[in-house]
Structures are given as structure tokens and as C-alpha cells.
Specification:
disordered N terminus, single chain, about 475 residues, alpha/beta
Length: about 475
């Protein structure tokens, strides 16, 4: 990446490190090992078990390792059917025992599926738990390694151990990076401990008879409101900028009052919150403000070489995510939301939100295994500029869609939304073009996908 010259040959890495043991990382590891042609593939996970967001550990357990809490909570019920949680070439996800009344798996059932899937790789040492990658740094390319680049230096948690890898797959997801509104006064509420993000939600205990204001009307906010309704002071107020997206299902509840957006907060001498709403209403005496405004992808441990002329003798790595962060929020310079355009030996799986993240990660990581194993097939463009076309076109598309009054917050770069079918079908065609045997193995994203849309109606019935 230190050169301005476009790459004409595609890399063929042999030693690959996957970072992150959630669903995306686990299926990526399997696909690189079983569907790719590499000399060594390994996965590191900083927590003491696999599962990512689906692993709800007990923070009271004494441990010498840092604690990274999942944003999940006890008894969480998912909103994706088992069909779309089942990895290819592996036994399907078992039908939940409470079907058909509750066809959606619980948190514990999903975690157990992932643990079982990962077990052989843990036993063989391909998955290393309690191992955190704290820095991933691009190395300069010696002339003798022009095609594969200089590889990557990975610093593990104890700051003493360094490893070198040909390629790195980042599969850490979004949930380290909660998004907070920029509403005036909210920072003071955070300092006082009366404003909390949905990432911290662990159930209604402690909120009995408290006056609550919830921000947002997506899945997390709706779940929190429903859990609080039987125990908190009523009404519970739920602030929303627009009507909820039709796929975010919740039942009408007289105990939950929808209110307009908050324009500012005040923390009163009594230790309560006054919330000033857009329509002129003031909510007085609020005990807690619970924020469910989502997350963003922002892996801050990755450092790249800057783009400088070849004559430059010394360059220092710079963060992948610059300051200020790019607008719209995204991991910049990704070809097809997968490969870094300037150095395609850096890849991301799970950097984009989809309706069905498990099977999407399965497909995308299979494509990646083929793209890296068989560079002669040219599954992606040879030049940097060509690899940047996808980002430029997607930015233009998002700008067009966001024109008008109060556009949906879901119309963002890193959420596939209405583009998901086109995106995955194109990748699937290329995968099947390499290995026709996978045509009957991978989901088709055609007739099967009708069930995907229908599952949101099932969710409403299950509620």
C-alpha cells in the first residue's frame, strides 16, 4: 500500500488469521479450511467461549481476563428462523422445542448451536480462546513479495507476543461500538448514570416503579419497552423520529406511549431528568433514559500504511478508521463490503448488516476462500481504482435514497436492506461458477427467501 501503482496481480495468501469467534468468524474459519487451499488458518477470540453476541457470560465469575459483555440479555428470543441460522454442509439448526407457538430460537439455543459447530476447531487448536488481537498492522512489501504484500503483524493481548500472517479476516461485528444520539444534555445524563445504552440492558430488575424514557423504535427498544411494561411506572415513554419499520415487530400496549423526538435534556437538582420534546411537550421526573439507537462498525485496532510515493523511505501506519470518521459511517475503501481495496489481503466478514447474517456470512466467506485460493479466476478486479468503484457507487445510491424529509435510519451504507438479494445472488453465482457442487448446498436466495420475509409475520404471531 505504500505505492500509488495499481496492483496487476492478485494475492494468494497461505497463512490466514481470523479475528472474532462469533457466527461470522466461525463459519469463515470452517470455509477457509474446508473450501480453500491454504497452508494454515487459525482463529483468535478474546473471550473464554465462542458465540459472539450469542454468548452471554456471567460477569460475576472471577477471571483474570478482561470482561467484554455481550449486548444480549437473559431469555432473549431471536427474530430469525432456524432455516436461516443453519450453516451449509452442517446439520441444520434444530427446531425450537416450543414450536409452533414460538418458532424462534432462544439465546441459549443459538449459542449451543455455535458451540457445537466450533467444537472440532477448538479441540484441534484452530480456535484459540482468551486471545485478543490488540493491534493489526500492515507491513511494507519487499520487492520479492510484491504480489502477496508484506503481510500483517498481529500483536496479541499481553503486548509481548507478535505473529506475522499473510492475510487477516476481521469478523468482530458491530457491538463494541454503540451509537449515541447527539442530543444536548445527554452526555451529562451518561455521567450521572441515568442514561444507558441498550448494550447494557440485562432485564427489568432494578427498574421497578421507575419512570422510563426509551429512545428508538427498533428491535432493542421495542423489547426493552415490552419487558418494562409490567414492572415500571406507567406510562413508559418511547421516543421515535418516525413510524417503525414494518419488519420491527411489537404489539400495541396501552402502557407504552409513543412520543416525539427529544431536542434536549436537563438533569435536575432532585436527580431526575426533564426531557424536552420536539412538539413542545416536557417530560418531567424521568428516572432513566434508555437508548436503543444501534451500533456501528469501527474496528479501531487495525493500522494501514498510508498512500505515499514509492520514493518515501519511512512511513508510519495510520488507523483504518480515520479521525474524524468517514461520513456516512462505514469501514472505508471496501470492495463489495469484503476486501480492502488498497490491500486485498485484509478482509471483513460481518461488516455489513443483513436480514440473515448467518447464511450471508457463510456465502461471503466461501467467496473469499475462492478469491484468495484461486487468484487466476479474477473474482475481483486487479487494480485499486477498480476495487473502489463499488464504494463510490454505493455512496451515490445511499445519497439518492436519503433525499427527502426524515429518511429512515436504516438507509445507511453498512445495512444491505433492499440491496441484499442482488448482493448475495451475485456472489452466489460466482461461488457456484467455481464449485458447481455448492449449488445444492448454499441457500438459493430465490424461492427460499420468501420464507425469510414471511418470518416477520410469524414473529408478530409469536409475540
Amino acid at each position: 500500500m505504500g505505492s500509488l501503482e495499481p496492483l496487476t496481480l492478485l494475492p494468494c495468501p497461505q497463512r490466514i488469521l481470523v479475528i472474532g469467534g462469533g457466527p461470522a468468524g466461525l463459519v469463515t474459519l470452517r470455509n477457509l479450511i474446508q473450501r480453500g487451499e491454504f497452508s494454515h488458518v487459525e482463529l483468535v477470540e478474546r473471550r473464554d467461549d465462542v458465540g459472539g453476541v450469542w454468548y452471554l457470560d456471567d460477569p460475576t465469575n472471577e477471571t483474570s481476563t478482561p470482561h467484554w459483555p455481550s449486548p444480549a440479555y437473559p431469555n432473549l428470543t431471536g427474530n430469525v428462523l432456524p432455516t436461516f441460522l443453519s450453516f451449509s454442509s452442517y446439520p441444520p439448526f434444530l427446531i425450537p422445542p416450543n414450536s409452533p407457538n414460538q418458532p424462534f430460537p432462544m439465546l441459549q439455543e443459538t449459542h449451543e448451536y455455535l458451540r457445537t459447530f466450533a467444537a472440532p476447531f477448538v479441540a484441534s487448536g484452530k480456535i484459540k480462546l482468551n486471545t485478543e488481537a490488540v493491534r493489526v498492522e500492515e507491513l511494507p512489501s519487499p520487492l520479492s513479495a510484491e504480489v502477496n504484500g508484506g503481510g500483517w503483524k498481529v500483536v496479541l493481548r499481553d503486548w509481548k507476543r507478535e505473529e506475522h500472517w499473510d492475510a487477516v479476516v476481521v469478523a468482530v461485528g458491530w457491538y463494541d461500538n454503540p451509537v449515541w444520539p447527539s442530543t444536548p444534555g445527554l452526555d451529562i445524563l451518561c455521567d450521572k448514570g441515568v442514561a444507558k445504552h441498550a448494550k447494557e440492558w440485562r432485564g427489568a430488575k432494578g427498574y421497578e416503579r421507575k419512570k422510563i424514557l426509551i429512545i428508538g423504535n427498533a428491535n432493542s427498544s421495542n423489547d426493552i419497552a415490552a419487558h418494562l411494561a409490567p414492572v415500571a411506572h406507567v406510562p413508559i415513554y418511547q421516543s421515535q423520529r418516525r413510524e417503525p419499520w414494518f419488519l420491527f415487530k411489537s404489539l400495541p400496549d396501552a402502557r407504552i406511549h409513543k412520543v416525539s423526538p427529544v431536542v434536549r435534556y436537563e438533569y435536575t437538582p432532585s436527580g431526575h431528568v426533564s426531557a424536552y420534546l420536539e412538539d413542545g411537550t416536557v417530560l418531567e421526573g424521568v428516572d432513566y433514559v434508555l437508548v436503543g439507537t444501534g451500533y456501528r462498525p469501527s474496528p479501531k485496532f487495525i493500522y494501514l500504511l498510508p498512500h505515499l510515493p514509492p520514493s518515501t523511505t519511512k512511513v508510519e501506519p495510520v488507523p483504518l478508521i480515520p479521525t474524524p470518521a468517514p461520513s456516512p459511517t462505514r469501514i472505508p475503501n471496501l470492495h463489495r463490503l469484503i476486501l480492502h481495496a488498497h490491500n486485498p489481503t485484509l478482509s471483513f466478514i460481518g461488516a455489513v448488516h443483513s436480514y440473515t447474517p448467518f447464511i450471508t456470512a457463510d456465502l461471503v466467506s466461501t467467496w473469499l476462500a475462492f478469491a484468495w485460493s484461486f487468484p487466476e479466476l479474477s473474482l475481483y478486479p486487479p487494480s485499486i481504482d477498480q476495487r473502489l468503484v463499488f464504494e463510490r457507487e454505493r455512496l451515490k445510491k445511499m445519497e439518492e435514497r436519503r433525499k427527502g424529509k426524515n429518511p429512515s435510519s436504516l438507509v445507511v451504507f453498512s445495512i444491505l436492506g433492499e440491496d441484499e438479494d442482488e448482493y448475495v445472488r451475485a456472489l452466489r453465482r460466482e461461488v457456484v461458477g467455481v464449485d458447481k457442487g455448492l449449488d445444492g448446498v448454499l441457500p438459493s436466495w430465490s424461492e427460499e427467501m420468501k420464507e425469510r420475509v414471511g418470518m416477520y409475520g410469524l414473529k408478530e404471531g409469536a409475540l
